[in-house]
Structure formats: C-alpha cells, structure tokens
Amino acid sequence: MTRKLIFIAPLAILAMVLFAVVSGEIVLYLWNWLLPPLFGWPQISFWQALGLLTLCRFLFGGFGWRGSGRSSFRRRMAECCGHMTPEERERFRQRMRERFGFGPSTCEIKGQ
Known about the structure:
Blueprint: H1 2-39, H2 46-61, H3 69-81, H4 86-100, H5 106-110
Helix pairs in contact: 1-2
C-alpha cells in the first residue's frame, strides 16, 4: 500500500502543478486577447493571471471540496423530510413560515 502511495503522491503533485500552469495560461491568453482591445485595459503577466484565477476561485467558485451550499442544503432537507407524512410536512412548513417569515406559499404546497 505504501509503495503505491510513493508513486501516486508525486504524480498528484505534478498534476496539480500542471493544472495550475495550464489554467493560468488560459486566463492569461483570454485576458490579453479580449480585454485590452475591448476596454483598453493593460495586458497581464502569467503570475497576475494566476493570481486573478485564484481570486476568482475564492470569490465565486470555491475549490470544489464541498458541494455547493444550495444543492447540499436541498439534499439534506430531502433526506430529513423524506420520511415525513404529508401532514407532518405541512406542519413543518407552517412552523418555518411562522418562525422565519418565509417558505413555500399555499399555492405551491397544493400544486405538489
């Protein structure tokens, strides 16, 4: 088992570095191809492109270590409420509306 890890770990590190280099180059070429002619913004270097990519991943995308918040919340709620009867589900929705002031409207509940 440790013998496999000795070969896999350097390959994984190499793959991550290769992914960062390719992603940085893609951002660099797209920025320098589109933004200077369109908006007159300056061209950027590879390191600036990599920094921009990292900043955008932090702000908008995360790094994919966890599922997106909304879909994982919906999945947890479906697991939690999946065993409830329709009456229990309606009482739960009513309590959520009373407590937090939001939730599905009565029309949406009847349409299900």
